[in-house]
Amino acid sequence: MGRGALLVLADGRFPAGGHAHSGGAEEAVRAGRITGAADLEAFCRGRLHTAGLVAAALAAAAAAGADPAELDAAADARTPSPALRLAARKLGRQLMRAARATWPSPELDAVARAFPKGAHQPVVLGLTARAAGLGPSDAAYCAVYESVSGPATAVVRLLSLDPFEATAVLARLAPELDLVVDRAVAAGTAVPPALPAASAPLLELGAEIHAAWPVRLFAS
Amino acid sequence: MSGVHATARIRACADGRGGTALPVLDGDGPLAVRRTRAAGDEARVMLVGAMSGPLGGDRFRVEAEVGGGARLHVGSAAATIALPGQLKDEAHYAVRLTVADGGELRWLPEPLISARGSELYVTTHADLAPGARLVLREEQVLGRAGEEPGRLTSRLVLRVGGKTVLDQELACGPGAPGGWDGPAVLGGHRAVGQLVVVRPEFAERPVAARIVGEHAALVPLAGPAALVTAVAPDGLRLRRVLDEALADLG
User: Fold this and answer.
1) CATH 3.30.70.270 fits A27-210, yes or no
2) Residues of A with CB below 8 A from B210's CB?
């Protein structure tokens, strides 16, 4: 099935709540690790090859029909930060609500029942792609793109960065998105899935620091 | 031509008199294991790297098995330094730890230093029964003083009662996927470490997440375990924060 459905799912305006999350960029800006477009690019590149790769492999595996409960447990093991586990489940629940309204499917209903507090977002993303008639590669593309577009959009707001510069950062990363998708699809569609576990210490630490702030612009 | 292949094996079991016996304690090639003075009911073992290494192409493996009621403490005599070898191949260092119900392992080796030009893949698998206890420390230092690091990939997998509780891989150094030294991953820090603490009582009473020092956090995992993740400018400051976190856990 086609690109039409992929554009609907990948659209930043798809009502799944992602805009409220900065992907760790808010804490990195506050800590002085992101001060402009060059830092943003290095941040996004690091996130892409770690959290982005893992999310894309989970999404590809879910889209290929792997057991959602096993994938959700694998996501937990790859997410040591409880703040990030909570954020991933909240985002998963919001996406689930949008997905069931958009592409109703018994599979989505079953996972929604099994995970009342939400399954990890990349798992729900893969199931949503499946319900929309899309494949593992489409799901992986949505995941890797989200892994960099979230921080880029957030940094435009946090630093008043020129939106053209932020978009240029994303465009420069595009060839690497393709490479990460290839790796994620190969790993996620292996039987059983050979899920990567790439981690980013500062994203994990930053998420805990951010969660302890009394006031913040973004939820994570 | 291939690199050095070496295996060290340690098996600890309760000696029936309230102490811990070591029925298996052997190493070959550059990997030696020595029993040192026991502390109470805990047996103590020191890993001694008789040569520098691992070098490119080497395959090292360390296996430790702790039986029910046994308590084992494993340290190392010095830091392990990954060095480039004459072989272009990467080196592998595999650690396999198993702890039975009622057993306790304290795995506290000195840091791993990734020297310029080296290429090392380290894997640590800890497999625990539901009633087992573990303290595991891993420290990686990127380059000797003022030196560029080599390429280092390190994967840590913790399973408790057959369920994977933690699975993490960190890749850094020249040739690692992009962004490893950037603001999302290491941000210029040259030392990174983890402390894993598994206690059956954490299933009912998980630790509360908290920040330790400037660049470390203690978090509850999705299982009866806690994890401290820390980054620091150097190995000394890394050890300080990990020690502080461990003391904090009581």
Assistant:
1) no
2) 208
